């Protein structure tokens, strides 16, 4: 767990505080994630405290290394994400969060906010569903192998619906 992702709520004074750090592949291994092979992500944290609440902005920018879905070679994907949080202690009045922020409730006794899970979730969600190289960048040997089994011919159909096969071919 990276220490810069722990926000000491008692140590915050009124006003704004900034700090940052960098995440690598070990961060994702600590969550048991095997899909993300490596990472180089800078995280900037800005916390503002007033008498009733703490506002935390987390900006994540960098790249994550995953396997390509087509050729299984390593692929670096640029990521950029922002988490806007409003931290409240449990039992406080329930008012709407400021600026469409995500509410985070912590126990009355808690003095630290661990942003590790939030950062992990936002980075994983910033990855595209389909992860592949741009056209022409995949391993050509693997693509040749994958394309060798494709055929444009229709297979012969001798089943009970064979007579309906060409019904919509006009």
Can you give a write-up of this model?
There is one protein chain. This protein has helices at residues 25-29, 116-126, 140-147; strands spanning 6-8, 15-23, 38-49, 54-67, 74-89, 102-106, 112-114. With 170 residues, the protein is mainly beta. The chain has one domain. A hairpin with a 4-residue loop joins strand 3 and strand 4 (54-67). The longest helix is centred in the C-terminal third of the chain and has 11 residues, at 116-126. The model has no long low-confidence stretch (mean pLDDT 85).
Characteristic key phrases:
mainly beta, 170 residues, elongated
Short description, anyone?
The protein has one domain. The chain is 14% helix and 36% strand.
Question: What oligomeric assembly is this protein in?
Answer: single chain
Tally of distinct domains: 1
Number of helices: 3
The secondary-structure element order is: EEHEEEEEHH
